Request: fold
Amino acid sequence: MFEYTFTNVIEVLTPFEVDFDQVKTEVTQTNEYTRNLFKYPNGLILDTYQYRDKVVIKSNRKLEEKDGAVSVVL
Reply:
């Protein structure tokens, strides 16, 4: 797994067509963070942890940051 930490607002871009009805999503909230686990039909996994001051993204694929957006590297 790859892990990335961001302290600013980011947008996650997927360079492939996504039918969001097929993306499995699990949301967990604690006092410390909100966790969103996304499992895409093509095997991509994005596991995000939103803290008060940062966002941590764990992914089974490499991500690339550019101009305030993060893209999945195919």
In short: The CA atoms of residues 10 and 66 lie 10 Å apart. The chain has a mean pLDDT of 91. The chain has one domain: 2-72.
